Amino acid sequence: MTRQSIDKSLLQTFVPVNALSGDQLDWLLDQQEVCRYVSGDVLFSLGDQDNTTIYLLSGKVELSDETGDRRTVSAGDTASWHPLEHVQPRRSTARAVGDVSVVRFDSFRLDTILSWDQSAGYVILDINANSAYQNDREWMIRLLKSKLFHRVPPSNILGIFSRLKANRHKEGERIIRQGEAADCCYILKEGVCEVSINIGEGEPTSVAMLEEGEWFGEEALLSGKPRNATVSMATDGVLMRLDRQDFDALLREPIIKTMPGDQVLSSAEKGAWWLDVRTSDEFDQEHLVGATNMPLNVLRLKSRLLDPGKTYIAYCDTGRRSATAAFLLKNAGLDVIVLDGGLNANAVTLNEYLTQG
Q1: Candidates 3.30.70.260, 2.40.30.260, 2.60.120.10, 3.40.30.10; correct CATH number of 110-251?
Q2: Is the whole model's pTM more than 0.85, yes or no?
């Protein structure tokens, strides 16, 4: 097995990766692991639980299940647009037929970025539609594309801007000092900031200039260590301050109702409805019998079609997107249970309820 890399255009052929925006595709590209196999190599085995999503790039793979049934998937086929046997534990063994290359992603990270991207999309729609944000759209949207926010649970994205406090500062004003304890971080709304560090007894050394929409000060909040640099205003400007308690609150997972597969089956038998929040392409590939497909990126628009008198069981592959969906639907007054760990963590319990098409 050898490793290489691929470009973004190829990623856009895969489901559900094709639902990501360009910026998030760039982030996902950094997470890729491309592997090559020779004929006879095993990509994964029946029963494996490796939390990995695998797409076929080239060649042909044979899948054999516990009954001995065999089928092949060739690169370029419709089946190759979807992950290879993505439900875990793996329901078959995959073996290379000739030379094969695949790309691998951590399943939890992939589902997290899908959830984050679609949640941020709601916020961007609100920003563009609200005239009150007319002068703030550029820096707000740039902020939402910051990799720092991949640490923020997608459900919390909607509350980011309500926690920020605007302050105007003058050129030359020192905002944070190297060595100090951290009690907040900042986003640069207007102006330019200079980052400098002290090395030994000499004069501070300028190491970077920060522009509108950029963060600073968050590293010390995340690490708990003193500030590692001094930041001063290079021009007059406006900073948005986020205090430590608000920063910590943004990183905390919201409280939602979760249940494992056996318990949600009991709820379904009592009348709860399955709600698949994955993309329509994923739903068409495989879903739970009787489920309604309402992808996360259109959920807020279509939630009015749901019955407030019913209980819904939201699910996706890992639980990340369904957790975000539950938060949105809860705010809309609906009763929602999340399938804990998603389909991947409940494959044994739910396998007989899965159907295609």
Answers
A1: 2.60.120.10
A2: no
